[in-house]
Specification:
Chain lengths: ~350, ~240, ~300
């Protein structure tokens, strides 16, 4: 029962409570009946509940149970490996890109006085051009489906003669990680950039007042704060990455879903296997989103006093139920734009 | 870059099909998302749990899995998604009406998946409405439905518009997956076909496909940035 | 992918048992006895010498084609293509256990070779002029033909011409020759054609009635017919000849000659027939006599 919801209606009196109870029971019964007739019956008729189909997944006594779970374990390991590498690299790449863009913006404001006029003009043109190029790259990779990015990284790079070989993992791992990194790095860069730009201007001004250079300001003052504010959004981005590793099936990376395909081809139980895989994903991601929520709560408690910089909370980052503060949209739309991909 | 000229019709056709897919799925997602959001704020506990469960499940599985259940689970339930073959719509969106159900399956998967995110976007909008508004509405004796309809939702939409736009952009990008689940001729399926079956060079095809997607996503993204900037000023 | 041999042997034994239990004939774990390994010597600098020296080779094959290359629960593929690859490896002095398999879906076979990610591709790989521009083929080692599979109770489809009316729907695999071939017979690809990454999904779609037919090479279809006793049948006659070749990197003529020699040798000594009988022969008992190799 969150604050916000209870605001919408009065505390129920006896009659309302009765009505609620009746409606509750009726809707619960209706849901069960609908489930039975629309899902259970058709599936049962098609013999989807036989032990032959479920046994290998849930019955340790089944002769292939061990094999199936060994395979699934390998798949999950591959998924986590790819996701872990991708998120670390995305963070590094994203931070670098965010700092670069902030720096370039700062450069644009400089007039390079004290240098020869032509030289100053050239420098300004250069910084303008660089700014344009990075902006262009960000817009392109933010706007492309990550599937397409992965697909073409995996097939285009070797085509150009660029080969990446890692000492471990599946041979497609580097391409999947690279594809995910390009996309998520750009997204994280935007999250951080909007976080830094959303900070009260006093922060930057006081940093300048005590004589910090613009790079020092970014590194010591803005970035740490942006990270703190953006932590929930960053964690939810981790969930996105984890889900996106499943796109590895397109380039033949042996992650959970592709392993699932192998099992299905041998045992012919697609619905069962995908259900189990779905549950695995839900378990891991649900834990992560709970983590994101608790981090967010902590931050909210620690920052009750300051209302100046509200955390721009992308709606999918966490269920905002009960959060008193308005869902600030301090960030650019992109902070939220990418909070869900396949 | 000759492939762009030689197969121009393929790129245009792919773009057109992806666009249809997105328009239909966005409509579906908004309907589903609004409905689930209403469930989630209703005074009836089981409905709230149902909505919550829906969002939790759908937000935490990869779209690939949802796509799979749509394309292979629905047939297992004996459905070909024929309810989407709406007479008027089928004339505009020709793929809706044909016997092959995979276009419809893709729409269902995208709508159902994106619906969960739409629901959250709407809820974030509702959360952004100052509680005093709803309290005042109750004080003058409005019922729950009236309260939502006349006071909360009109304001919530304003706050939800940017997150909603973001969700729709994400959905456009997600639609690329449809080409791998039996929808023939959309942008990503065309990319597959051009590069593998016809052996066209990879980079030019990539450029062509990218342009197709960017035409849809970038203007929307820039528009959202504008809207957001204006709202920030207004605040 | 790499698992210890002990585990793999145990696993395939268990698999064989389970297969028998399910009445599933999707190729048993290991096919035939692994071929005897030769101890050859090659001219320095050739691909053969390199591979022989390394003692291992990478083979691109299908992971989803019953009878030709189907990945088992032990993670290793098994089937006729895999057996042929083992015979070639044996001729190079490479033991069957030292072969590394890479999945080679129809869509990316040329790239795997062009980018040196595999040494050879043995993956129901039809020889055709367009592909010859990018890679070279040894063989053919088998001639398949495109065929159409329908539900047993459906007599309305008699051949590819049945699709010209535009009301029948057909499924095939992305980027494959059969998918290209069938398009000529379709009135409207958008309404009639479905493409998936694997044929398994096509079979599901056929069973569920979403499509009326699946088209690909006859042997692959026979595999599905055998796996789903009584559900499906072939319609009409095969309407193309699909010579399967072994893909090697463009211009590596010495290696191509060597593989062709190897093919001729295994046709002679019976190991070719044995490879067939232990794999695809389970659902097509016409053991082929090896087709004449094409040394272009």
């Amino acid at each position: 029962m969150s604050q916000q919801q209870s605001v919408l209606y009065d505390a129920p009196g006896p009659r309302a409570r009765r009505v609620t109870l009746i409606v509750s029971v009726l809707s619960a019964v209706a849901a069960v009946i609908a489930g039975y007739f629309l899902v259970y019956r058709p599936l049962a008729e098609r013999e989807q509940f036989t032990m032959e189909k479920w046994g290998p997944l849930i019955d340790p006594g089944n002769e292939v149970f061990g094999q199936v779970w060994t395979l699934l374990g390998e798949g999950v390991t591959a998924t986590l490996t790819a996701a872990g590498l991708a998120i670390v690299l995305s963070l590094l790449f994203g931070t670098a890109l965010a700092v670069l863009r902030i720096q370039l913006k700062a450069l644009l404001r400089r007039r390079f006085t004290g240098l020869a006029t032509s030289f100053a003009l050239a420098l300004r043109a250069l910084s303008w051009l660089l700014n344009l190029v990075t902006r262009f790259c960000v817009e392109v990779f933010r706007g492309l489906p990550v599937v397409i990015t992965i697909f073409f990284v995996a097939r285009g790079l070797p085509d150009l003669g660029v080969e990446i070989v890692l000492p471990f993992g599946h041979e497609m791992l580097p391409y999947l990680v690279l594809g995910l990194t390009i996309y998520n790095g750009v997204v994280i860069a935007e999250i951080l950039r909007s976080g830094m730009e959303g900070l009260p201007s006093g922060q930057r001004e006081s940093a300048a007042a005590i004589g910090l250079t613009s790079f020092q300001t970014t590194r010591m003052i803005l970035l740490p704060q942006a990270f703190r504010i953006m932590l929930p959004a960053l964690i939810s981005q981790l969930i996105v990455v984890l889900k996106d590793t499943s796109l590895g099936f397109i380039i033949g990376y042996q992650e959970t879903l592709l392993v699932g395909r192998t099992i299905i081809q041998n045992l012919r139980n697609p619905i069962q296997v995908y259900l189990v895989i779905g549950v695995l994903f839900i378990a891991v991601n649900y834990a992560l989103s709970k983590l994101a929520e608790s981090v967010q709560r902590r931050l909210a408690q620690g920052r009750r006093t300051s209302t100046a910089a509200q955390p721009p909370t992308p709606p999918p980052a966490s269920t905002l139920a009960g959060q008193q503060t308005a869902a600030g949209t301090g960030g650019s739309a992109t902070g939220t734009a990418t909070s869900d991909t396949a | 870059m000759r492939v762009l000229v030689d197969h121009f019709d393929v790129f245009v056709g792919g773009f057109w099909l992806t666009l249809q897919l997105c328009v239909l799925s966005a409509t579906g997602a908004l309907l589903i998302g609004t409905f689930v959001a209403i469930l989630r704020i209703s005074p009836v506990p089981p409905l709230r749990w149902l909505g919550g469960a829906y969002v939790t499940v759908l937000r935490n599985v990869p779209l690939t899995v949802v796509m799979f259940f749509s394309a292979f689970g629905l047939p297992a339930l004996g459905s070909n998604a024929d309810f989407l073959r709406i007479p008027g719509l089928s004339t505009v969106f020709s793929r809706l009406g044909i016997d092959l159900p995979y276009f419809r399956f893709a729409i269902i998967a995208l709508s159902v998946y994106t619906g969960a995110f739409v629901c959250e976007a709407i809820r974030s909008g509702i959360n952004a409405v100052p509680p005093g508004q709803a309290e005042a509405a109750r004080a003058i004796g409005l019922t729950f439905t009236q309260n939502l309809r006349y006071v909360v939702l009109p304001q919530a939409w304003k706050a939800a518009i940017v997150p909603l736009g973001s969700v729709i952009i994400a959905m456009i990008k997600n639609s690329a997956l449809a080409g791998f689940f039996g929808v023939v001729g959309d942008l990503s399926n065309s990319a597959q076909n051009l590069t593998s079956a016809l052996g066209e060079p990879i980079i030019p095809v990539f450029v062509g496909i990218s342009i197709g997607f960017l035409i849809m996503t970038v203007p929307l993204g820039l528009l959202l940035d504008r809207v957001e900037a204006r709202r920030a000023v207004a605040r | 992918m790499r698992i210890s041999r002990m585990a793999a042997v145990a696993a395939s034994a268990a698999l064989a048992v389970s297969m028998a239990a399910c009445g599933d004939s999707g190729g048993d774990g290991t096919g035939s006895e692994n071929p005897d390994v030769a101890t050859p010597s090659f001219e320095a600098g050739t691909t053969m010498a390199e591979l022989s020296e390394a003692g291992t080779m990478t083979v691109g094959t299908k992971f989803d084609q019953p009878g030709f290359g189907l990945q088992g629960l032990d993670g290793e593929p098994a089937g006729f293509d895999v057996e042929i690859a083992k015979l070639i490896a044996a001729e190079l002095g490479i033991a069957a256990d030292d072969i590394e398999y890479v999945e080679a879906p129809s869509a990316v076979r040329e790239e795997l070779l062009e980018q040196d990610r595999v040494d050879i591709v043995v993956a129901t790989y039809t020889i055709n002029p367009a592909r010859k521009e990018r890679i070279d083929f040894a063989g053919p080692y088998y001639v398949a033909g495109q065929h159409i599979m329908v539900r047993t109770d459906d007599d309305s489809i008699t051949g590819p011409e049945s699709f010209e009316a535009g009301d029948k729907k057909v499924c095939s695999a992305q980027g494959s020759t059969p998918a290209e071939n069938i398009q000529e017979y379709l009135a409207d690809a958008g309404e009639q054609l479905v493409l998936f990454d694997v044929y398994e999904k096509c079979v599901d779609a056929l069973r569920g009635g979403q499509v009326d037919a699946v088209t690909t090479d006859n042997v692959i279809l026979l595999g599905f017919i055998a796996d789903n006793e009584g559900d499906f049948k072939l319609a009409g006659e095969k309407f193309t000849d699909e010579p399967y070749g072994i893909g090697v990197k463009k211009g590596d003529d010495a290696f191509r000659d060597f593989i062709n020699d190897t093919l001729e040798k295994i046709y002679e000594d019976g190991s070719y027939a044995q490879a067939w009988e232990s794999t695809a022969g389970e659902f097509d008992d016409n053991t082929p006599t090896g087709p004449a190799v094409d040394r272009y």
